[in-house]
Amino acid sequence: MDRAWYLRFSAVIIALLASLFLLLQTVNRAGWVGDHEAVTAALRDGTTDELTGMNALFAWLTEHVDRQITPGLDIQGGLRLMYTVDMDAAIEDRQRARAQQLLRRLGERLDIVDEGEVPDEDELDRIRARVQAQIGDADSRLIVLRFTGDSIAADMAHVDHDMVNRFGDLVEDGRTEDSVRLRLQEESIEELRTVAVNQAQETIKSRITELGISEANVRARDIDISVEVPGADQARFQQIRDIISQTARLEFKICDDGNAFVNELPAADLPEGIQRQSSSGVSVGEGRTVTDYYLYTDGPGPCPEGETPPDGHTQCTGRQRLLGFVRQLHRDGRVPDGRQLAIGQMSTGDASTDASGEADSWRTYLLYEQPPNGSDAVGGEHLEDASVGTDPESQQWVVLFSMKTDGARLMAELTQGNLRRRMAVVLDDEVKSAPVIQSRIGSNGQITLGGFGDPASLQQEARDLVVVLRAGALPAPIIAQNEQLIGPTLGADSVKQGALGAVIGIGLVLLFMAVYYEIAGVVADIMVLLNLIFMMAIMAFFNSDLTLPGIAGIALTVGMAVDANVLITERIREELRMGKSARAAVDQGFGRAFWSIFDSQLTTFIAGVVLFQYGSPEIQGFAKTLMIGIVTSLFTGVFCSRVMFDWIVRGLRVSRLRVG
Fold first, then answer.
1. What is the pLDDT of residues 102-123, one digit of tens each?
2. Which of 213, 302, 347, 508 is spaced 20 to 30 Å from 575 by Cα?
3. How many CB atoms neighbour CB 96 within 10 A?
4. Phi, psi angle pair for 477, to nearest 5°
């Protein structure tokens, strides 16, 4: 045997050993080797050092490699969720951010704010007295700057090409006598869509991982995201769904207590069941107190426009009613500039409950969009860690958090400049708590949860909030499109029939090859088995899930792998009939069959790419195994089988090669 053969043989052995190593975790999970439950328990409890033998190896693999094939939903059942990223909300967020930045930039050009400085409350009021920024809907992508006062033309001149160009994603859309229209460019919308979907996909993966679920499959396609959690039961269904769909945008905002906005709303404009109430003696700074007016609702009632009652009910909850009215006030432009009207659950002990027994008394809070002392805003992006704890005074469950270095600095500036004022902890535009700032806060703080449930449910709520805070906020809300809890019984029946069909088909092919092609057939059978090992190893390396269409793809791949060996064997047979020696016949057979095999496999691979790109998730499972199988069948059919034939005709020096 020449040196080149030993190198090729070594490559085959290394590939085989690596494949078997990658399949160890899958074998353990299937229960064929090792104790999967013991390994899982040891990893959860941190007692892996007590494991021995194969279990210790599997624990090490899970911690450092963790590559395995996961049965799909159609095999073992589970949870399938389909979401769409709310791009309208993402675009409107970008519009609002650009509107605030435009006002700051104009404040600098109008000599109201020093360059690079953040305007405080008084400076913002001076800017808005001369120019206001209004945003259109997501379809228009417009930001309209409306100028007022005695120097409209001069002020508008500051909105020039250089100023607009510095943002990179804005373009001027036209002007009137007192306004400038700016529009987000289409390229920036496409970039925003890509970033929002990718970030949403990664955030959902992180949240599921925080729950201790390592087998979920999260895919993104256009603006749609599918989540598959094999094995999830009804008990986990609600928790997973709620945690995934929560945007978890955390903000710390100062309350604008004492603002007369709510008190000036005409009583006739208040919907049925929504009242105006007040609290006296509310602190707004050192030695200053005011009367705070807010909107309040207590219990279910008629639904506002655009809202529908919960399933099984005829009326909307108090939260829906108040939130619907707040959104209407924002749409009508009745909320003061630079302010946000948010809602929060009342913390009264006698709060009413809705039909489900949940506390259903809600009130509004008027918040500054930007800190009034001119400091930068503080949000969830500045969070470093979060954990569950209890308040030493009230004994309520709370979420304890710590800030990153820059977040701690910003929090200190925010609280130092707003002592004795209320700071609202806002999660997804809902005020969780609004404590008075008694002293400067640094790197640590807590979020007090509202609600009046039992301690166990409040503790679980705190744990779920920790999960989403650790994983980060979604870049945009996601809208549930389809939710399915697939039963495992259907999967068990289906996989039994599908696996049986695949085994019978593969077995018949192997038997036919061994009988019809004799020695060459045995070589082909060995290559088919190698092909299956390599294919499953590649799937394990990418943590792929195995579905019933995937099993069909494997069965088809076996036939294609055999087809490659049949072409080679028939070529060898023709060369032998022409009187050539076994060595010459093998050389000529492989040489002349290669391009026929390559062409056929390439065209099938292209078809697999198209199916994977445009097919449904089920079709994608078939296409994935098909494409992997084509690659491995080329390797085994052309490379590995040549190594074995060379060993037969050169190593064993077989002069009469039996090929049927």
1. 888 898 888 888 876 767 778 8
2. 508
3. 14
4. -60, 155
CB 224 within 8 A of CB 480: no
Helix axes 234-245, 186-210, angle to 10 degrees: 140
pLDDT of the residue at 180: 92
Contact call for residues 249 and 472 (beta carbons, < 8 A): no
When comparing pLDDT for 618 and 19, which is higher?
19
Please indicate, yes or no, whether the overall pTM of this predicted structure exceeds 0.85.
no
Q: Which amino acid is at 194?
A: T
The per-residue pLDDT for 14 is 94
Q: Is the pLDDT of residue 348 over 90?
A: no
Q: What kind and span of H or E run contains 398?
A: strand 397-403
Looking at per-residue pLDDT, the higher value among 395 and 573 belongs to 573
Q: What is the Cα Rg of the chain in Å?
A: 33
Tracing tokens 């195995």 back to the chain, one arrives at 546
DSSP assignment of 146-175, as one string? EE-SS-HHHHHHTS-HHHHHTTSSEEEEEE
Q: Using CA atoms, how far apart are residues 107 and 578, in angstroms rounded to an integer?
A: 92
Using DSSP, state whether 23 is helix, strand or coil.
Answer: helix
* Residue 110 in tokens: 């109008």
pLDDT, greater one: 354 or 361: 361
Q: How far apart are CA 252 and CA 397, in angstroms?
A: 20
- pLDDT score recorded for residue 590: 85
* CA distances from residue 102 to 105, 112, 124, 251, 566 in whole angstroms, order as listed: 5, 14, 12, 22, 71
User: Do 17 and 536 meet the contact criterion of CB atoms below 8 Å apart?
Assistant: no
Query: Chain-wide mean pLDDT for the chain?
Result: 81
**Residue 314 DSSP SS3:** coil
So what's the pLDDT on residue 494? 64
189 strand-pairing partners: none
* Helical packing angle, 3-29 and 488-541, nearest 10°: 150
**In 361-404, alpha helices (H):** none
**Apex CA 158: angle with CA 156 and CA 163, to 5°?**
125
Q: Where are the domains of the chain?
A: 1-68, 87-188, 249-452, 489-660
CA distance 145 to 143: 7
Mean pLDDT value across residues 474-481: 82
E strand or H helix at 588: helix 582-614
Q: Is the dihedral of CA 543, 547, 552, 555 positive or negative?
A: positive
CA 500 – CA 488 distance, rounded (Å): 18
Amino acid in position 219: R
Question: In this predicted structure, what is the pLDDT of residue 355?
Answer: 44
Containing 407, the helix (H) or strand (E) segment is: helix 405-416
pLDDT of 295:
93
The residue that leads in pLDDT, 133 or 64, is 133
- Closest to 95 (Cα-Cα) out of 378, 476, 479, 480: 476
pLDDT at position 16: 92
DSSP structure string for 191-233: HHHHHHHHHHHHHHHHHHHHTT----EEEEETTEEEEEEET--
Instruction: Give helix then strand counts, H and E, for the chain.
Output: 18, 21
Say what the pLDDT of residue 196 is. 86
Q: How far apart, in whole angstroms, are the C-alpha atoms of residue 139 and residue 174?
A: 17
Range 489-660: architecture per CATH: Up-down Bundle (1.20)
Q: CB 15: neighbour CB atoms within 10 A?
A: 19
Give me the amino acid identity at 243: I
Could you give the count of Cα atoms lying within 13 Å of 568 in the half-sphere of its Cβ?
27
Distance CA 450, CA 463 (A): 14
CA distance 555 to 321: 57
